[in-house]
Predict the structure of Gap junction protein.
Amino acid sequence: MSWAFLRDLLSGVNKYSTGIGRIWVAVVFLFRLLVYVAAAENIWKHEHDEFECNIKQPGCENVCFDHFFPVSHIRFWALQLIMVSTPSLLVVFHVAYRENREKHHNQKLYKNPGKIDGGLLCTYLISLILKTGLEIFFLVLFYKLYNGFKIPRLVKCDIKPCPNTVDCYISKPTEKMIFLYFLVATSCLCIVLNLSELSYLMFKYSIKCYLKNQQGSKS
């Protein structure tokens, strides 16, 4: 899979982000995307081939793997990375709309098309809410699919066509557990950063409106 588009998207959003937003971009790019591409993807690359059950009954191993791993971890995280980064496109599109509007009218309509104010502020806040919601959704979904954030060393399976309860072994469970905790922790960190940036922008806007009203009442 090529991650060039996601990398370019994050780089583009970085130009319009606040300080907290730039930290979020760094966390997503350095601690999630690069770790995923450089290490995690290789660890789960042959997860099906390395899943072994102590029986040779045709089809038993496949149905057991599908039961305990309904969605591949690596594809799940790939989808999560794409989905939580996509709302940032709203900001990029809004800035592009401002720039195209200025070109169409052939005059300066905004002091800075990339400045977070007015309609762009609303778009930015919506993108933060969407990113936070998607992060929480994927964490909850992962927890529900796998009954927690854990990688068991041994799973017992009694699903047909298995003739009885069989023991199935997952390869490199400790290594996978370490990366699982790391990726979950970075996802939680991104949630904290998004909520912090959301609070910061709302507080900043509230103070700005308050000072504006105070000046208006004095005049």
User: Anything to note?
Assistant: The two ends are 60 Å apart (CA to CA). The longest strand covers residues 154-157. The CA atoms of residues 60 and 160 lie 7 Å apart.
